[in-house]
Amino acid sequence: FFQSNHLSLVSLADMLSCRQVLNLLTMLGFMLNYALRVNLTIAIVDMVVPNDAANTSQNVSDALTGNLTDISDFDNSNNTSTDGVEVLEERFDWDERQTNFVLGSFFWGYVLTELPGGRLAELIGGVRVFGHSMLWASLLTLLTPLAAHLNYVALIVVRVALGFMLGATWPAIHPVAAVWIPPMDRSKFMSNMMASSLGAAITMPVCGYLISVSGWASVFYLTGGIGVLWSLCWFAFVYETPATHPRISAEERREIEEAIGTSTSKKRPSYVPWGQLLCSPAVWAIIVTHGLSVFGFFTVINQLPTFMSKMLHFDIKKNGLFSSLPYLGKYVMAVASSYLADHLRHKGTLSTTATRKLFTSFALVTPGLMMAAQVFLGMDPTWSVVLFTLALFAHGAVTAGYLGNGLDIAPNFSGTIFGMANSLSSFGGFLSTWMVGVLTYHNQTFHQWQIVFWILAATYISAAIVFVVIGTGELQSWNNPPERKKIGDVAQEEGMPLKTEK
């Protein structure tokens, strides 16, 4: 059975170009990346003993009919049933601060590997770093239910370790793009990163359904198991460079290497020109914009299920369904805006700098305005879902904006730059969960959520202003630093075209 399936996968890989296989597995990888991350945000609604039965208990039998039952009929147990089958599962007595502490602990590990992960990918290859990070994260996900049942601290340890593994994935994919994707096609490739939103869109309703029929632990077993299978495919079909790929055609390899030319060095730079990099306004435009942007995004993805449960009183299945809509919209926008951006650059309609600033502004100002509208319309379930969906829909355009900007200005150090940017955003992720926990501690009122929405509006719009003022799409002079000679060194290879490799 396994041999026949392996042969089928090899045959499918042979039908596609190497870049198509890379794009497909990268897209699936980022879908799983966020599935491994957000499964807890939907499961934790059912993991925690409700402190107010009128607000948080669920009647899943009625949920499966697609109707929102009057919450006054809900009981305070975790005995749910579908078609006469009861699901009995332990719940945990955590308050709002403890719950948000569990959600935020992911970022403790996440922040530790952002910068090292990006630099490691530049030195040994992004394919290895991305693949191993996802594999170990999947195994940790499988252990999550056991850790939760052991004790509160064990769950926190597993979530920190999960963040440690996933922290290296995002910066690691930039060095992969630097050697595999021609410069004028990189916006489209970067849209694969936004498949993370598609993964969240699928994970949310699937988790909601699984919880209703099999209990909250099932979501960790499903997402972790799929992650392990993906990792095996990644190591089997993706290689570090076109030159090392055994199935690449001479034509495809030549096309890639000629398009990339000297912007990416044949020999990976052995050191980072930290002085020039840290003094570059273009680098800080990416770091600050990404930090502020992701602070808003993480606040939404981590707190959206809780807001819908506590304020809008959606049951667990409806919670998963409506929580997924914004992510689906974000992925659609990511793909559409990336193709449009690359088309405008190919045609010469807009320069790279103008393209990045235009799409960044749209992707950040629009969510800021939507969060401001939530202040006034957020208690209406229909308006709330529409505004959240529009906010994340517009935010998907970051793939055509600042998200791949490190590949424009310094492809040789794109992993390091994105690692720095994601390190700041990781602190923002923990800060966002702490902020919501403090504001809503024993005070789950819409007034407190209005404060959250105002903070998000200001954050999004400030991020857009920073990038418009100091961002650029021009290749920086320090992208190809001269190699430091060692005793016995041969001729330097910086800036040598990939196509000259024998």
UniProtKB/TrEMBL annotation:
Keyword terms of this UniProt record: Membrane, Symport, Transmembrane, Transmembrane helix, Transport
Major facilitator superfamily (MFS) profile domain: residues covered: 21-475
GO biological process: monoatomic anion transport
A Pfam match: MFS_1
Region (Disordered): 481-502
Any GO molecular function: symporter activity
InterPro entries: MFS (IPR011701), MFS_dom (IPR020846), MFS_Na/Anion_cotransporter (IPR050382), MFS_trans_sf (IPR036259)
A single GO cellular-component term on record: membrane
Protein's recorded name: Major facilitator superfamily (MFS) profile domain-containing protein
